[in-house]
Structure formats: C-alpha cells, structure tokens
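Colleagues,

For the teaching module next term, I've prepared a clean inverse folding example: a structure given as tokens, and then the sequence designed for it. I'd like students to try predicting residues themselves before seeing the answer, so please don't circulate the second half yet.
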C-alpha cells in the first residue's frame, strides 16, 4: 500500500470539534496533534503576527498598500503554463511545481487532495510520492478538506522533506505545529481561498445556480464577474455574479469561511491563485526566499507578465454591502447587462483582488461582530481591521 492509499483516521467521527461550528475541518483534530489545537486552530487563536514572523522573518508592512492587502512578499507576477495540464483548475502551475519538487529530490512527499472514487467533489487527502499521485489531485475540490488528517503518517513514515499544498486555514494550523512533526524542511504552496462549503452546501449551490448540477466538473468565480461552470461534455456555462440567488445562498457558506480573514494565504512560501491576474492567467505571490526557490524550478515552463492594476473598486464595494444584506438578486437580463458593463469599466488585476478582499472582509467582519461579538477584537487581524475601516458599515 502506498502512502497515497492510506486513509486518514478520523478520531472524532461525527463528534464535535474544539472550534465547534467554526471548525473548517482542516484535519488537525483527526490526528494526535489535536493536543495543540487551542494554540494551532485558526479559529481559536488568531496569531498572524507571530506566524508571519516565524514563516517569513517579519510581519507584513501595514503601511505598504500591497502588503496590507496581499501579505508579506518579495514579488508578484502573472503567469500561465505554456503547455497547460489538461483537467487542472487553471493551467496546472500547482501540480507542475509539486511534480518538479518531487522529481528534483527537494521533497520526498506532497500533501495534496484527491477525490473519493464515487464523488469528484469529495476530498481525499493523501501524501503523494509519485507524479501520478500528484496529477490525480489536480483541480479544486471546492469543499472543506481535512488535508492535515494525514500529518501523522508523515511522522510515522520517517519523511524529512515535505511539500504541503493547502488553503489558509489548513496552512495556519500546519505552521503552528510544523516543528512537532519531525521534518528537516517544510515547503508550503498555498492557494487563496474564500467562501468554501461543506459537501451539502456545495450541492445546494450547484442546484440553485447551474442549469445541470450533476454534470459540473469544475467551477470558478472568475475575474469577469461570472461564475464559469465546466460540464462533463466540455461545454461552458456562465452565470453573472449579480444574478446569483443571494437570498438562498447566504447560508451555504461554511461558518468558518464567513469568519475567515486569510483569503490570500498569508503563511505560505508561495501562493498560486488567479484573482490579481488578467483573465486566463494565474497570479503568483512569492513571499520569501523558499518561495523564490520553488518558483525557479518551473520558470522554463511558464509565460509571465507583470501584475497590473486598473479601476477603482471602492464605490462598488460600498454599494454591495447593503445589497448583500438585503439579499438583492437582479433578473437575469439585468444581471448579464450589469456584468458586461462592470467587466468593461470595473476593477482589473490587483484592483479586482482588492475588490474581492474588501467585499469578503466587510461581510465577514459584520458576521463576526454580530454572531461572536466577544471574539471580534482578538479574532480579526489588524490588517483586516484597517481594510474594513475604509467603509461605512451598518450595525
Ligand atoms: C477551495 C478553493 C477556493 C479557491 N478560491 C480562490 C479565490 O477565491 N481566488 C483565487 O485567486 N484563487 C482561489 N483558489 C485557487 C485557484 O482556484 C486554483 O486552485 C489555483 O490557481 C491553482 O490552479 P492550478 O491549475 O495551478 O491547480 P492544479 O494544478 O489543478 O492543482 C490544484 C491543487 O489544489 C489542491 N486542492 C484541491 N482542492 C483543495 C481543497 N479543498 N483544499 C486544499 N487544497 C485543495 C489539490 O491538492 C491540487 O494540488 C481556490 C482554491 C481552492 C481549492
């Protein structure tokens, strides 16, 4: 049996996890490292300042507008693979990097997430030790995924050099325990993440939004203000953001994601997303020298261009706050028209990234303030408080 085929053992099947409804099911509590949960859990102990210093040698510079938004970084660039990987979420930069690191001997294994054999959206975390196992993990499983549930297998296998691929909540917990798992070197490849869902929430989203929920193989909220669905037969379906049935979708997002301020994965060495790049390109944030070393490995597989920024997001964000609160949904013809107009004149590149961060942080700030007022001061990091303070919020 390879490491990729060993299943993680949930030690609390059906049980209540320490963060209760705020648990993002990162998997830490399914391992013996549950002992560290009070310190390590992103929802029980917000500690960006400490963990940024541990990971990157310093905290983000709050007076640098790019660092305020996108976190500690050396460089940002837009990139795409010259030969994209078929079936990847975008062009497959994440999978290619993991394969290069394994093939060149930088790591012995890769924490990534495949899907269960009977459900393409049901995550199955693995420690991949071959390129085939990494490729089998390509494409987003757009649901909460217990990636850290395989951590104990890392220690048991005697592995010393590891690449972990993951989203912010998983990486925050991993950074907090990384010294306890017997590694000599940990590389962290992060993706931005927002509005994730439990498996049932995903079903509701697909059923409320797509014309054919059972054939969706891939979807993404794109920079052209549409959700793009790809179906089994290869066809594409676009649904404008402004036509989403907000009133029915308010409760599909996981409570953890409605309380999260780590959209851009602040603690990864290297982040690969799309939101700061032109449509069709991926957005890469190199946070530290380890991230630069990682990116250099696949530089010859990439076409790149500098990141750009156009437009002004602020009025659109301010207007979206009461619209979301009221659950406004436009008729489809108006939503499409609005989408076309906003794509022409709306924020692009890094400004689109700021638009998305502002919209989610203001919404999440209000959520925490109303639902967990006693947590507000300590849970919301200083960078998010500064971002939110730019807007007039309802009570
Ligand atoms: C849940 C989720 C939400 C995201 N939201 C945004 C966003 O709002 N803005 C943005 O710019 N980018 C977002 N991303 C990142 C983006 O969608 C792409 O994943 C990224 O650009 C990499 O594309 P790729 O083609 O290089 O990846 P691929 O080569 O296809 O590899 C995808 C990798 O994602 C990992 N993965 C899949 N599902 C999960 C999961 N649930 N949890 C942890 N790891 C997973 C797999 O292990 C695989 O290694 C999100 C990613 C995920 C998983």
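(Answer key — instructors only)
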């Amino acid at each position: 049996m390879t490491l990729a085929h060993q299943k993680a053992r949930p030690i609390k099947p059906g049980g209540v996890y320490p963060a209760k409804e705020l648990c993002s099911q990162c998997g830490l509590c399914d391992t013996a490292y549950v002992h560290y949960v009070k310190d390590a859990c992103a929802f029980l102990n917000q500690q960006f300042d400490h963990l940024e210093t541990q990971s990157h040698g310093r905290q983000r510079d709050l007076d640098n507008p790019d660092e305020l938004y996108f976190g500690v970084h050396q460089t940002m660039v837009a990139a795409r693979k010259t030969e994209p990987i078929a079936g990847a979420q975008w062009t497959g930069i994440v999978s290619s990097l993991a394969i290069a690191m394994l093939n060149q001997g930088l790591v012995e294994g890769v924490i990534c997430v495949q899907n269960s054999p009977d459900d393409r959206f049901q995550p199955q975390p693995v420690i991949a030790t071959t390129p085939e196992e990494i490729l089998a993990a390509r494409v987003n499983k757009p649901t909460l995924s217990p990636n850290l549930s395989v951590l104990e297998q890392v220690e048991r296998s005697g592995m010393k050099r590891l690449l972990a691929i993951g989203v912010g909540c998983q990486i925050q917990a991993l950074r907090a325990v990384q010294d306890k798992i017997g590694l000599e070197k940990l590389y962290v490849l992060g993706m931005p993440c927002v509005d994730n869902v439990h498996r049932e929430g995903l079903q509701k989203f697909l059923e409320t939004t797509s014309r054919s929920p059972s054939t969706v193989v891939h979807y993404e909220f794109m920079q052209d203000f549409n959700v793009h669905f790809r179906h089994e037969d290869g066809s594409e379906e676009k649904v404008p953001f402004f036509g989403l049935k907000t009133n029915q979708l308010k409760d599909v997002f996981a409570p953890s994601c409605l309380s999260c301020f780590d959209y851009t994965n602040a603690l990864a060495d290297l982040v690969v997303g799309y939101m700061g790049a032109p449509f069709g390109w991926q957005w890469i944030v190199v946070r530290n020298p380890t991230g630069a070393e990682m990116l250099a490995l696949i530089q010859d597989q990439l076409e790149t261009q500098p990141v750009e920024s156009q437009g002004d997001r602020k009025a659109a964000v301010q207007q979206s706050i009461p619209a979301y609160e009221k659950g406004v949904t436009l008729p489809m013809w108006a939503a499409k028209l609005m989408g076309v107009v906003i794509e022409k004149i709306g924020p692009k590149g890094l400004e689109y990234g700021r638009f998305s961060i502002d919209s989610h942080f203001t919404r999440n700030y209000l959520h925490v303030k109303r639902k967990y007022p006693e947590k507000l001061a300590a849970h919301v990091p200083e960078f998010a408080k500064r971002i939110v303070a730019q807007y007039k919020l309802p009570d």
